[in-house]
Amino acid sequence: MALLIAPIAAPVTTPVSKDQPMPFRPGETLNYRVSWAAFSTAADIQLSVPERRDLFGWQTWHFRATAHTQSPVSSLFPIDDQFDSYTDCASLESRQFESHLDELGKASSQVQHLVPTGQQPKAPGASVVVEPGTRDALGALFTIRGADWARTPELRIPVYTGRDVYEMRGRRDAAPQPVTVPAGVYSAQRISIAVFQHDKELTNIHLAIWLANDPAHTPVVMQATLPFGNIRAELSPQK
């Protein structure tokens, strides 16, 4: 009698997404002095990377930004805000975005779970369905830091602001040049960012970031031209 031997099936392996290399590390904290209109010290901003963590099964970066108005602007527009972004380590898609606002005496908080089209939600509760690759505004800033601008002619990023989706299109304007800020003098390259919605450029909004030519790609200047005035944030000495 012939002996029948069933072939051994090859083990099924699930592809493992690799983390994208980033120039920053958990524990980083950067402080900025903000000028607006005629006020040279309108506010303070802090950007930080508190941790990397598992979020409902995703490996994520936790980014945080805080903003506080300073006197005399605080007497006109008291603002004490905090934003938290949980960004996927592999895809750089935003998984969760939190805003904790205290503005003009009114406090509010919101937590939003972003799910790209075609993916299943993992977080409990309602989700916001977005196109694949979407970042929140804070996660987009760190994505810009992580880009290889020597090899990237243009970076296009869909960005969800909490209400609407825009597209940021970033380009490097020139080679690194000396930039002087309160924290010192840095060799930095200027990244110019235009904002589009439905393929139409919003000409009354323009952003620019100067990234230091250092291993961390430190943002030394962040500038926004907005309908209510120009805002410029410059890196301050670390406390």
How would you describe this structure to a colleague?
The chain has a single domain, classed as YmcC-like fold (Beta Barrel). Helices cover about 5% and strands about 55% of the residues. It has a 15-stranded mixed beta sheet that branches.
Structure class: mainly beta
The protein's oligomeric status is single chain
Q: What is the H/E string?
A: EEEHEEEEEHEEEEEEE
- Number of helical stretches of at least 4 residues: 2
Q: Within the CATH hierarchy, at the fold level, what is the topology?
A: YmcC-like fold
Uncertain residue ranges: 1-15
Query: Termini, distance in Å?
Result: 83 Å
Query: Could you tell me the number of beta strands?
Result: 15
Return the domain count.
Answer: 1
Strand content: over 45%
Form type: globular
Q: What about the largest sheet?
A: 15 strands, mixed
Short description:
The protein has a single domain, classed as Beta Barrel (YmcC-like fold).
What descriptors fit this protein?
239 residues, mainly beta, YmcC-like fold, 15-stranded mixed beta sheet, globular, disordered N terminus
Layout of strands and helices, then pairs:
Blueprint lengths: L28 E8 L2 E17 L2 E12 L3 H4 L3 E9 L5 E10 L2 E11 L11 E3 L4 E2 H10 L8 E6 L4 E8 L4 E5 L2 E14 L2 E13 L6 E8 L2 E7 L4
Parallel strand pairs: 6-7, 8-9
Antiparallel strand pairs: 1-2, 1-15, 2-3, 3-4, 4-5, 5-6, 9-10, 10-12, 11-12, 12-13, 13-14, 14-15
